[in-house]
Sequence to fold (106 residues):
Amino acid sequence: MTEPIVFEHGRVQIRVDRGVLELFERSNVVRSYRTPLEWVRVQVQARKRGVYLLHFSYVEDLDEPIYARLTGSVCSLSTVEIPMADEPVYRAFFTELAALADRPVG
Fold:
């Protein structure tokens, strides 16, 4: 059995275990998002004052990028706010997951 992949950065923890991605964020309310890795879609939205929003939702088509810039409207199941400087760390992690799921990165 393979070990879970765990990504921890600031108040965010993402775990992938047996093909299921789970997102946890510590804040005033503990939020979570859980879905098969093949269905994950993360859209990155630049905001003011050096902040990005990561919108977690489901793909419509399994060939969609696992991680890409937000290009239109968004319907997110969970949203995480990160400093702009941290975005490359998240992009690298989702690039690794994309390879595991045989999915592109936008």
Helices lie at 87-101.
